[in-house]
């Protein structure tokens, strides 16, 4: 990661950046990455299947279906769409929110 910053790229690409991290560390890591990219005027591009995390940290979603861009916009607009995957993600996120409220911690 340090090497990536040394070359001063305008876009930093992270593929499944939180794959092997615990919940708290995932959020800390992406918060720090977000702060660094904002402070250095870099774009942060995250490829992930962690939908709740993407919802929290990514203001723009580009969803690909069978190699084609099927959606480009805000997470809110995607979850309102009639897309089958969007409905599954919404259910998953609703369940996570309930668990977070019961446990009092972020998933």
Protein model, in words:
With 107 residues, this protein is α+β, with helices and mostly antiparallel strands. The protein has helices at residues 2-6, 23-39, 51-57, 75-80, 84-103; strands spanning 11-15, 43-47, 61-65, 68-73. The chain has a two-stranded parallel sheet with strand order 1-2. The longest helix has 20 residues, at 84-103. The two termini are 25 Å apart. The mean pLDDT is 83.
Unreliable spans are none
| Mass-distribution shape | globular
How many strand elements?
4
Major β-sheet annotation: 2 strands, parallel
Spatially, the strands of the biggest sheet line up as 1-2
What's the helix and strand layout?
Blueprint lengths: L1 H5 L4 E5 L7 H17 L3 E5 L3 H7 L3 E5 L2 E6 L1 H6 L3 H20 L4
Parallel strand pairs: 1-2
Antiparallel strand pairs: 3-4
Give me some keywords for this one.
single chain; 107 residues; alpha+beta; two-stranded parallel sheet; 20% strand
């Amino acid at each position: 990661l340090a090497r990536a910053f040394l070359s001063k790229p305008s876009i930093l690409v992270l593929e499944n950046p939180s794959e092997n991290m615990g919940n708290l560390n995932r959020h800390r890591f992406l918060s720090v990455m977000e702060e660094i990219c904002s402070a250095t005027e870099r774009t942060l591009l995250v490829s992930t299947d962690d939908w709740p995390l993407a919802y929290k940290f990514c203001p723009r979603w580009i969803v690909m279906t069978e190699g084609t861009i099927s959606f480009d916009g805000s997470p809110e607009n995607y979850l309102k769409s009639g897309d089958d995957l969007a409905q599954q993600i919404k259910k998953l996120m609703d369940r996570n929110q309930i668990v977070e409220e019961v446990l009092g911690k972020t998933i």
